[in-house]
Amino acid sequence: MERIRVTHDVAGRTLTVWLGDPQQEHISTLTDDEVVVMKSQEDLLAGELPPAQALLSSLTAKAMSKAGLSGHFADLYPIVRTYVAERCFGTRVDLEAETMRSHLRNPLMQEGIAGYLARMIGRLTVEERPLAFEKAEFRLSETQPFWWRRNLPPLECEWTIFNYVATYNDFERAFAEFLDSASDVVRFASLGTTEQGRSGTRFRVDYLKPSGAIGFYHPDWVVVQSTPDGEASWIIETKGRHWPDTEAKVAAMERWCERVTRQTGLVWRFHLVDQADFERRRLKTLALAVTPGEGEGTAPLPLG
Question: Which pTM value belongs to this model?
């Protein structure tokens, strides 16, 4: 017997019935009683063209999934229907027309429309508020102990705040050794960030992903630098490769530094250190590390 899974969304006022494997691609049908029936793409392609309501329900569900939005299917569905009928194709279209339903059933078409809607949802639902500090007197040195099992044995440095430096790979280990020897670094700490984005510390910055969903960014390092004008605090990200949301993270972190500097009067800056750029230079100061292309010599630093 085919397995059936039922999900009751109290906030969205819908009942979702999965007739097949939930991990497969699905199209949904919204009944008059606000029951969303999920069917596999193969089942639908094998039969007649689904009605416009089913296709639009699928678009709505996909857009919500991409935007990380839940509990608002009933609110979003009429907006999606109006958008597709009146704006999506540059002119008003008949959603029940066979040609239009054939286009809307195309997985690439659905993916494109859902992706655009998710990005618009993200922009409209994000609200920028004044910075509020959960615990203004919190010190990084008060971070609770956390486990670390990467890039062992653990690295000990003189100028780090913690007893060990939590490095994820050899590049981060080399960067920590550089910070420990840099003449203008007063103190530093690795924030315990893993590739999955979890952090051993409490610091994070929210940002808007290209998909439209809200992401949580945990930077790699915090560094205090000695400058002729006094101390400056740096949030530093070490990157061996760039991901689709890297630019969004950088923009969010730069805005955070600007706002914190204005609000506290303390200097905060952000810099992304590229692995290839870092490894081709011999650096002795953080000032050179945050100035791409400048340095002493071109020999790479050892990674051992």
Answer: 0.59
Q: Which of 15-29, 257-271, 277-291 has the lowest mean pLDDT?
A: 15-29
Say yes or no to pLDDT of 8 above 80: no
State residue 256 phi and psi, 5-degree precision. Answer: -60, -45
Q: Please measure the distance between the N-terminal and C-terminal CA atoms of the chain and give it in whole angstroms.
A: 58
Nearest C-alpha neighbor of 54 from the set 46, 62, 65, 68: 62
DSSP symbols for 195-236: TTS-BSSS--EEEE-TTS-EEEE--SEEEEEEETTEEEEEEE
Domains and CATH numbers, the chain: 5-125 (no CATH), 140-289 (3.40.1350)
Residues in the chain: 304
Per-residue model confidence as pLDDT tens digits over 123-162: 776 666 665 655 556 678 778 788 888 888 989 999 998 8
Place of tokens 């690795």: 190
User: 41 and 21 in contact (C-beta within 8 Å)?
Assistant: no
HSE value, Cβ hemisphere, 13 Å, CA-based, for 152: 4
Characterise 290 by phi-psi region: left (phi > 0), alpha (psi -120 to 50), beta (else).
alpha
Q: Return the pLDDT at 33.
A: 52
Higher pLDDT, 191 or 11: 191
Residue 46, class by beta-carbon neighbours within 10 Å (0-12 exposed, 13-18 middle, 19+ buried)?
exposed
What CA–CA distance (Å, rounded) separates 142 from 228?
29
